[in-house]
Amino acid sequence: MEHIVNNIDLIAFLTFIFSWVGYSGYLKIFRKNKDNLYGIMLDYRLKWMKDCLKREDKSVDAVTLGNLMRSVSFFASTSILIIAGLIPLLTYGDKIINFVSDITFLSGKSEVAYELKILLLIIIFIYSFFKYTWALRQYNYASILIFSPTDSHEDYNNAVIRNAKILANAARHFSMGIRSYYFGTVALSWFLSPYLLICSSILVFLINYRREYLSKALDIISN
Question: What's the N-to-C CA distance of the chain in angstroms?
Answer without folding.
Answer: 61
